[in-house]
Specification:
about 300 residues, mainly alpha, about 70% helix
């Protein structure tokens, strides 16, 4: 795996660092839940973000590798050019990058769990280590291999579970060693909005995905119903955000995350009127950044900071 100065830019392109705000959103929301109970540990916070960064970059490398080998990344694809597709990196280089970062991620997870649980809480340690390995597996198997779940319409489910439930609830548990039923609401917000980003990607690429036998949920539903599904995801996120505000309400600051749905409403209007999939590409960044903004607003409005 080469990291010479002249190739660093290519590896950063493959890493797609612009996707990090979305992946950080769940970790921030989980920290906000812990802060609302007056619990926080800077080492857990930093290590959680570091592990999430590794998971996301592994996923981006694997998507580039898997879609490139399967021919899904081709000249008909609307989104940004991938490094394997462009010939900037060979498949063998990307594969070594995935293996290298996976090893780093395993040791990083072990360090995080040691800081959070220690050796005495070995059942929690073992459970979260399995979840960490599952996160790495999920990041790779989305597009890699003959049984890649992203090619069977299961990407939405895995994104909801790992970006939403596990990211928010799991990261909170690392601080507090417990979860309340009301904690499910911010997890639903982050999970639904994260799935909506994936859905936008699938709406944009649905024609090329169909021709490449990448049977995403949009390919299965069709473009029209894919947009309706998109509306449903935002409705669920909004209801969950209302639930979050209700159960955490201490002052008007707890309503701050609801303001994020104002620009999201304009986004929905644009999506509903868009007939050309290529015009959806700029919307991915908007929703990803607004999801990140929601988590920051939730953090600011947490009881601990009032």
């Amino acid at each position: 795996m080469s990291f010479e100065a002249n190739s660093l830019k290519i590896w950063l392109q493959a890493a797609r660092l612009r996707t990090l705000p979305l992946s950080f959103s769940g970790i921030i929301a989980g920290a906000a839940l812990a802060l609302s109970e007056g619990v926080f540990n800077i080492y857990i916070g930093v290590l959680s973000l570091w592990c999430t960064l590794l998971f996301q970059v592994i996923s981006n490398f694997a998507n580039d590798y898997g879609d490139g080998l399967k021919g899904t990344d081709n000249d008909q694809r609307i989104g940004p050019k991938r490094v394997l597709q462009s010939g900037l990196l060979a498949a063998s280089q990307l594969k070594r990058g995935i293996v290298f970062l996976s090893v780093v991620a395993v040791f990083s997870v072990l360090l995080l769990l040691t800081v959070s649980f220690g050796i005495s809480n070995w059942p929690y340690f073992l459970l979260f280590f399995v979840l960490g390995i599952a996160s790495i597996w999920s990041a790779i198997r989305y597009t890699v291999g003959a049984s890649a779940y992203g090619y069977k319409g299961l990407g939405d489910l895995f994104v909801f579970l790992f970006f939403g439930l596990l990211s928010v609830l799991g990261s909170k548990f690392l601080y507090t060693l417990h979860i309340f039923l009301s904690d499910i609401f911010p997890a639903l917000v982050i999970g639904s909005l994260s799935v909506s980003v994936l859905n936008l990607n699938n709406l944009r690429d649905h024609e090329n995905d169909r021709l490449s036998d990448k049977n995403t949920l949009v390919v299965k539903l069709g473009y029209k119903w894919g947009k309706r599904y998109h509306m449903l995801l935002f409705f669920l996120a909004f209801l969950a955000s209302l639930g979050t505000a209700y159960f955490s309400f201490e002052s008007s600051l707890n309503l701050l995350p609801l303001l994020v749905f104002i620009p999201l409403l304009f986004h929905l209007i644009k999506v509903s009127k868009t007939t050309s999939p290529s015009l959806l590409d700029p919307e991915l960044k908007k929703v990803a950044l607004l999801t990140f903004l929601w988590s920051i607003c939730f953090l600011i409005g947490s009881n601990y900071l009032l």
